[in-house]
Amino acid sequence: MTEPFAAGADYVEFEEIESENSLREFVAGVFSWSPPWVKVLFGARYLLAKALRLDTASVPRSGRLRPEDVGFTPGDRVAFFTVRAGDPERYLVAGVDDSHLTGYLTVEAVPRGFRLGTLVHFHNRVGPAYFALIKPFHRLVIRGMLKAGAARPA
Q1: Rounded Cα–Cα distance for residues 82 and 63 (Å)
Q2: pTM of this prediction exceeds 0.85
Q3: What is the total count of domains within the chain?
Q4: pLDDT value at position 152?
C-alpha cells in the first residue's frame, strides 16, 4: 500500500490511534481539522514559502470535508493534497510536490483503528532545512489530525 511511496524517503513517521470510524469518516475528520492556531501557522508558512520561492506558496482553504466527498482515485483532491493511491476499505495515499520536497500523508486501516503516516522525500538542500523548521509544528498538527479523525462524526 504505502511501501512504494516510502521507498527512499528521507523522513518516515507513523502514528496509530484507535477508532470505530470508517476510513472515509476518519479521513474526513483528519482533513477537516483546522483550529485557528493552525491557520496562523499556515499563514507563517505562506510567508516562508514565498521567501524561498517554493511552488506551493499558498494557504490551503479550510472547511468541513464530508465522508462521502473523500475521493480515493488517483488525481482526486483532498485539501491541498492530490490522491496518489487508495482503496476506500483499506488505505489512502495523498501527496504534494514542490521544488524542495515531495510529501505524502498516508492513512491505513489497522485492527481497531488507523495509522497515519508522513513520508518526505527531499529534492535539494532547501528540503531538509525547511522541514527542520516545520517539524516541531508538524508533530502537533499530526496529533491533532489523529484525534479529529478518530472522533465520532457529528
Answers
A1: 17
A2: yes
A3: 1
A4: 85
